[in-house]
Every structure is written in structure tokens, then in C-alpha cells.
Amino acid sequence: MLELERNRSEGCLSDLRIDLYLAGELQPALRDSAGAHLRGCESCAARLAELEQDRDRYRRADRPPLPRRAPVASPARPRASVHRWLWPAAAAAVLALFVLWPRGVEELSGPSDPPAAGGTRIKGRPSLGFYVKRGDGAEVRAGASGDTVRPGDRVRFATTSEEAGFLIVAGVDPAGRVSVYHPTGARAEPIAAGTDQLLPTSVVLDDVLGSELVVGFFCQAAVEVSAVRRSLERAHATGGEPGLPGCRVDQLRLEKRAR
Amino acid sequence: MTRKLAGEATPDTERVDLDRIYRDHGHVVVRRARRLLGDEAEASEVLQEVFLSLLDRPGQFEGRSAVTTFLYAMTTNACLNRLRNRRRRARLLADVVSVDVRPDASHEASLDAALLLAQLPERLARVAIYYYLDEMTHEEIADVLGVSRRQVGNLVLRVQELARKAARAA
Fold first, then answer.
1. Model confidence at A19, in pLDDT bands (50, 70, 90)?
2. B149-169 vs B107-117: helix axis angle to the nearest 10?
3. What CATH number should be reported for the domain holding residue B170?
4. Tell me, what's the ipTM?
């Protein structure tokens, strides 16, 4: 028959109890009994030493600072003098890379929330944000429009919207080349209402440097990706704003530099 | 962590407290995630995930338990979310599963049993991890889950019952 095992000797301490002991978070009576046990139990004393070392290693490690709330993406502010551009990794490689990222980190109206015409904020306006994971390191940080990214970084987009709908995320480089990051199919894919909802895939940045405008199309229907492509190409050619009927748009800009 | 996090704390006080918790207790999250997920890089991601979640919703911590206990629970939940894949869960639970199989039972049967066990509902999966993997006492599990010891006892019995069913099915 199938049995579930517990191997710890009677009276020995769990890691939780030892962690609480180390952190000084045990009530006095429990602390005293744990201390007495640790003094008399070689096995638990050894475990205490291990956990202590682990804690000390963590504290000595060059760990990224405590993450901060993700800034909300602001509309693109094209820099006329900048002629750099960013390019996504090959589509297959992009889709193969599924990276786990933090969730649920921002509020809709942040300091960088884009102002509407007349300087007032548009309540409920959907927004596009992103996170960056640097190389193979553990650091994952929230990005904002205009941020500098590096080759090898993994970028994962996130949406904030008060309404469920359909989404397409695409970018256009200074040469007018359009890359679609989401979805992989021919039509916009559904997104749920919510804050800072991560898209399922990330993109890995190649070593081509420059600046790219990334646009999120938040639509009421599953519009065709080809329509978004045309909109971006037309906007690039005319200097106008991208847009489609039935869709709201949020934009951000990524600056890709070697260092 | 202090009660301030759950109340009307200003962003500054939240920041100070979380900085301290991140520095003083973050190792608990990393080590636990490393154990549950078996991956150092993913453990670091869980650390970020847990603290981003606390930054976003500091009221999650209600001050009913110690910081360490709270972080155990949060980390376990974060890891289980990542272990939605049944086979990944099965690999985790395989650490605590002993299949005293019939002489003619196959290795496949053992794997099937672990997989069936991996289908435990979320709450029972947490109990199985705390009880069998962490080997916590009922009292400790009650603290982590925020339930009574009696409820923990019932949940453990339920896990054992499902394990027996899994064994029969295997």
C-alpha cells in the first residue's frame, strides 16, 4: 500500500520551529524548550547550524534590492535625436522562453500614469507595462517607458485594465519594421480585467541596439493582427498615432543599449 | 513585520518594514522555495514575487502569526501556484511517498500513485507538504494555515484517506 512517511524523531524540531527560534519569534516558553532540545540533540543542533549558515549567506549575498511597485507605462515620448532601435529575438525562441515573473504589483493610477487631454487622468484607461529579467541573474525589475534595457534581457509585458477584452502587443522600430509580441495567432486574444496581468510569454532581446515603440491595443473584439500591423506602419509613415476602431491604445518605449 | 502593514500605514512606514523583513527574513523564502521547486533561480523569483505581492497588498499580513510563519505560508502558496503541473507536484510529493507495492506492482504503479496524490485539492496539498515534507506538528500547521488544531487533524486524515485511494487506484 501507499504510505506517507514522517521520519523526524519524536520531539525533534521542524525547520519552522528552528527558523522561529533563530528569528527570536518564539514565545518564551517555546523558546526555552526549543533551546533545551537544541542543546541536547545533535541532529537538531546540526540543522540549526545549517539554517544559520543559510541565513548568513543570504544576508551577505549581493541580492537585488527590495522590489518596488511597478511604474505604470507612460505614453511614448519619441526622442527625435535618437536613432537606435530594438529588435525582438526570433519568434520561436521568444515563445520557447517562458519565464516566471512576479505578479500583482501595481496600481492603475501611478505617478507616471499618462495624463489625458487637458491634463486630467483618464480613469480606467488600460495600460501596458513590462518587467525585465537581466540575463541569467535573479533580478526581475519593473520597467517604465523610456527605460534602458540590454541585450540578453528578457522582457515580459503586463496589462492593467478595468475591463476584459482582447489584446495585441506589437512594436515598431525606427525603420518602420513591425514585430508582433502578442498573440502568436492571427487575431487578438482575450485578456481578463485586472491589474498587472502578465502575458504568458517573454521576449529575449538580441544584441541590436536602439529604440522601439511598443504599443498595446486593448480591443472590444478579436481584431486581426494584420490590422494592427497596418496601423503601426501607417502611423510610422505619417507620424500619426496608431489606433484602430474599437480599440484603446497604450504605448511605451524601450531604449536598448549595450551598457 | 508589524501590524502597521495591515493598517493605515503610510508608504514610508510600509517601505521601512518591508525592507527589514526582506533583509532579515528573505532567506526563509528563498530556502523554502528552493526546496519546494528544486531550482535556485526560480527560488529567487519567488522571493521577488512574494515581496512584490506584499508591496502591493500589505494587508495580507494581519499580524496573527510570526513573520516567519507568515512567510512560510506565502512561499508555499507561491510555489504551489508554480507547481500546477501535476507531474511537478508528483516529483515534490515523491519525496514523502513510500509505495510499499505488491510484489508484482510495477514502478509505473508507484508513479501513478504519486501522480494521483499530486491531484490533491489545493488546501490538502498544502497540508500534505506541511505534515509530510516539513514534518510540522499539528500546532505548527494550525499556525501556518490559520485554522484550529482540530481542523488540521481532520485535514491530515483526509490526506491519508486520499492517499489510500490513490494506492488502490495504482
1. very high
2. 150
3. 1.10.10.10
4. 0.79
